[in-house]
DNA sequence: GTGAAAGCGCTAACAT
DNA sequence: ATGTTAGCGCTTTCAC
């Protein structure tokens, strides 16, 4: 058996390795090898491999071919396949920062899962904000004939699109560019803010404070608008003293604790979990307990923090996984009829123990 | 010139674009196109593109070719290149979880940076522990003819290697398998523990507690050994009551606060930042202040937490970035003369404000 | 100096 | 039902 060995003639000795079927160093078994072993033509092998439905191959032949494939541990060469079909199975993913935040990971994860399910593989490059890397990466994507490109940022904001992306099948993830017509997959900030407020309102809170971020962004404006809508829906008049700005960090949360205390709010929506964490600290230092004295809601759902605070923090999740997944969907099958080219992804409530019921 | 525009006939209006050299939708310009425009053969173009030194091309020809390349916005087809040279520029990266931890991100980032610098691109797949995905991923790596594979885990532990990886150029990152001869790139737990203890010792602390993790792992044994060594180096006798176990979470830290207080330790090494965070909480509830009453050192350097605690936490960093980067190095150029096939990566001290000096 | 030609491993008509 | 024949876009001898 393994007659193919001879057919290679007295050629190079470098692939005697093939001898034992243990797969070790099975130096590039090709279609031709399989064909020879099975005693058929390469096209036949190709046909059975791809299970083409039109071309009917005799069952016996199929078996023979399959046996050969297994014996030789044959794996098709994706590069050759891509070349001949003229179409790769790559999707490029450009992220501005995978390092400085746990978030990007989830976007990648979502994109990866979805792409995988459709038979695509992700070419990921992290630019860490470096425009040079960005340019090179796009070039590389081009050279690998990617099907499309996901351009993602770690927090939701406006970007100016690299020139070279304009000509490609690009979708923006967690960012947008109003000067382009590209599809943007972004979190639904408005309803996220509304959800946060409602979590408190539904438990009977009427005086709910809102700690906004100081950084200009869709999160800042969108969530505030959502909060207002939620109040309005309950017929609660807005009290400006209940709305305060803070840096979106633990420090920011600590800084506004006094204002929050003084406001007489029974519940407070924080811009993110980190702010909530700082707020917890500073509140406790004043002898104010969560949730018995005051209820708090976070935003983001950063597991490492939110789930392990004391008490565990009720929050609104930023749907990073879904952002990545929907991004891939949009690249593979561009949705039509979008408002403003946006695909809005919901921010779901995550109930834990930082909210108490008021009656 | 640009006669090709006509050859598209009256077709879709979407790529009349080719007309102006603005690159829009430049549908697959090939070597041949460039050759024709420049009035030379494809081989000539190939030669100038690759700046082959042996084949000397007339400077004038080079210029002509380069002009054509620029005009056409020509980019080589990496798939074709890889096919003909028989060697891809891919490195596969298998991670068990990018989702549940911020750490994997850093490994990816390091690997990505290093690979990029050497002209390689990463094929990343996140298995989230799913063996089926793992198998498929490895198959895929094979099909894309990757140069090598990085198998990485989110925390340092022993693994049993998937059968199919044994025949490949694989390096283990943040994990190891004692039954295989594969190179492992792992954090130097021993010296990490030693460093943590020394941070306290160097400030004059003599009674330093050690909160170990309950989960069996190189971190558990290695760091403890390092702590012991550090004590020994200072001629301090070990006090068993100073060594306690706890779950490696905030909850674990809170749980042992009382034991720590009772131990009379002036400083404590925590298994990780999260434990330190819980300890902070519980200590403060008892009116014990960090660092004036007690000094604490963390481990991991999880930025979101450590840098923003009150006071900011001094800690020992887990070198995830370097793990990924060195992993790529090992795949591309296997180091020789390793002890136990391990490449040990240092865990550096990160000084912040949770340690006070004793005199 | 430069071009012609032979593939790399595969798919897809078109024959048979 | 299966084999033959062209390429896909590129690199690389080997002639001229």
Write up what this structure looks like.
Two copies of one chain form a homodimer. By secondary structure, the first copy, chain A, is α/β, with parallel strands linked by helices. Chain A has three domains: 17-85, lambda repressor-like DNA-binding domains (434 Repressor (Amino-terminal Domain)), CATH 1.10.260.40; 90-187 and 322-345, Rossmann fold (3-Layer(aba) Sandwich), CATH 3.40.50; 189-319, Response regulator (Rossmann fold). Chain A is 40% helix and 16% strand. Chain A is built from 14 helices and twelve strands. In chain A, the strands form three sheets. A six-stranded parallel β-sheet of chain A has the order 2-1-3-4-5-11, with helices on both faces. In chain A, strands 7-6-8-9 form a four-stranded parallel β-sheet, sandwiched between helices. Chain A has a two-stranded antiparallel sheet with strand order 10-12. In chain A, helix 2 packs across helix 3 (42-49). The termini of chain A are far apart. The model of chain A is unreliable at 1-26 (pLDDT under 50). At the A-B interface, helix 5, helix 6, strand 2, helix 7 and helix 10 of A face helix 5, helix 6, strand 2, helix 7 and helix 10 of B. The structure holds a DNA duplex (16 and 16 nucleotides). Chains A, B: It holds the Pfam family Peripla_BP_3. Chains A, B: GO terms for molecular function: DNA-binding transcription factor activity; transcription cis-regulatory region binding.
């Amino acid at each position: 058996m393994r007659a193919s060995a001879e057919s290679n003639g007295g050629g190079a000795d470098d692939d005697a390795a093939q001898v034992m079927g243990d797969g070790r160093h099975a130096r590039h078994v090709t279609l031709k090898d399989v064909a020879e072993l099975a005693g058929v033509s390469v096209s036949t092998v190709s046909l059975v491999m791809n299970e083409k439905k039109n071309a009917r191959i005799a069952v016996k032949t199929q078996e023979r071919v399959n046996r050969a494939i297994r014996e030789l541990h044959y794996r098709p060469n994706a590069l050759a396949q891509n070349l001949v079909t003229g179409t790769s199975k790559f999707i490029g993913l450009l992220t501005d920062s995978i390092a400085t935040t746990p978030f990007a990971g989830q976007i990648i994860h979502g994109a990866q899962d979805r792409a995988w399910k459709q038979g695509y593989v992700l070419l990921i490059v992290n630019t860490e904000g470096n425009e040079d890397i960005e340019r090179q990466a796009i070039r590389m994507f081009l050279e690998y004939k990617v099907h499309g490109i996901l351009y993602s940022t770690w927090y939701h904001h406006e970007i100016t699109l690299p020139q070279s992306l304009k000509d490609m099948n690009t979708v923006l993830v967690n960012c947008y560019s109003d000067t382009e017509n590209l599809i943007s997959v972004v979190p639904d900030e408005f309803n996220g803010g509304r959800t946060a407020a409602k979590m408190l309102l539904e438990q009977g809170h009427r005086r709910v404070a809102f700690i906004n971020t100081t950084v200009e962004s869709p999160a800042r404006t969108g969530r505030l608008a959502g909060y207002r809508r939620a109040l309005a829906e309950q017929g609660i008049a807005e009290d400006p003293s209940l709305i305060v700005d803070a840096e979106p960090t633990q420090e920011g949360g600590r800084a506004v604790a006094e204002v929050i205390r003084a406001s007489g709010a029974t519940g407070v929506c924080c811009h993110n979990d980190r702010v909530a964490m700082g707020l917890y600290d500073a509140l406790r230092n004043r002898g104010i307990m969560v949730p018995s004295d005051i209820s708090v809601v976070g935003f983001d759902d950063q597991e490492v923090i939110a789930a392990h605070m004391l008490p565990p923090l009720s929050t609104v999740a930023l749907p990073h996984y879904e952002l990545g997944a929907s991004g891939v969907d949009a690249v593979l099958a561009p949705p039509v009829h979008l408002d403003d080219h946006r695909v809005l992804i919901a921010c779901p409530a995550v109930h834990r123990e930082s909210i108490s019921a008021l009656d």
